[in-house]
Amino acid sequence: MLNIMNEYVNYTSKTIDKYMKYIFEKGYDKGIMDKYTQTYIEYRYGDYVENPNKQNVCKNINNELDKLTSSLVGEKDQKFLEIVEAFYKCMFDLDSLYVLEKQTKAIQEIAKLRKNLLGIENPDFAGSFTQMVREDIQKKKLFIDGLKSETFDIKCTRFNGNKDILKVNLTNNIKFPNLYSDIAIEKAAQRDVIDEDLTLIKYALTCKRVVEDIITYNFETKYLLNLPKSIVDKKSKLSRLMTIIDNEYVVDKIRIVINFDTFDRFRTYIFELMKRGFIFDIFLDDKFNYSSDNIEYLVTFEKIFMLKDKYYYKDMTKNGTIKGRIEIVDGVV
Question: What is the pLDDT of residue 188?
Fold first, then answer.
């Protein structure tokens, strides 16, 4: 399965490398510039800002580029490093998908820096570089738009009234004959094989949404995605599913929800996925029994969803090790 974020980030890295070759010509130093590219990518697409917005993300990137330059002094001439840093500080606006004015100003600044810092003057540079950048931006847009489905979409609703936690459901525009009732259609979709394939589609469309969030500096929204029990027992299909979201910038935005029965049957698999960085929430279904052993396992989950009418409600909400993780829900998550 395609990992959308990996593809997008890898393409962005390649375009930055291409731009630096074009800007520096014979002065291009791949070893040094790879380090600057890596720093830019990490702090542009990673969630490292306390109050994430466009201005703060840009400021944080510039701070990290400053730190990198200081750390590389001795490995390379300081003046050269400062020149490289000046160009990388233009990447933030150059990398924008939707603000043409910012890109134009960044290209003008790069042309000026190229003349003043590198001593390279070419009257055709700005025009040819603009064409290169716009072609790459168009390819990125086509990549994102090409991930849309004419048949399926996702519907995201606030979970427990929290605007930053969204519950994801898959919707479709398939036209069924009138002889099929909504209940019959829903039951068919819940059959294991169909449910598993629909889950793959839901995860892919959610990952697309996460990429769009990150591109527009939204690092706060998290998405709740159910993991059917039947898919956990199928290693090949489970691997395909996890591949979709297996990216350091995406996993922080996804919360995989399983019920206790699934965890109890496949806890080895679940713990392996946790070790790989995937974040899980758990719903306490009828298979859950209140015991010290089970409580010990619950601390590995970020959130614990439970019904208020359960016999263990008071004990759970008083337990100091897990009470901060508990969220009361009205029904199955």
Answer: 44
Query: Same structural domain for residues 192 and 269?
Result: yes
What digits encode the pLDDT tens for the residues 87-103?
999 999 998 887 788 89
pTM of the complete model beyond 0.70: yes
Same domain, 157 and 301: yes
The CATH number assigned to the domain holding 243 equals 3.20.20.450
- 212 contact partners, CB below 8 Å, separation of at least 6: 144
Domain that holds residue 97: 4-145
Q: Report the DSSP beta bridge partners of residue 326.
A: 304
The enclosing H or E element of 307 equals strand 304-307
Nearest to 18 by CA among 6, 33, 32, 1: 33
Query: Same structural domain for residues 133 and 161?
Result: no
Looking at the fold, whether 181 and 262 belong to one and the same domain comes out as yes
Query: 287 and 179, same structural domain?
Result: yes
- pLDDT of amino acid 175: 57
- The answer to whether residues 8 and 143 touch, using CB atoms and an 8 Å cutoff, is yes
| Helix residue ranges, H only, the chain | 4-24, 30-45, 54-72, 78-88, 91-94, 100-118, 125-145, 182-189, 192-215, 229-232, 235-245, 260-265, 267-275, 292-298, 313-318
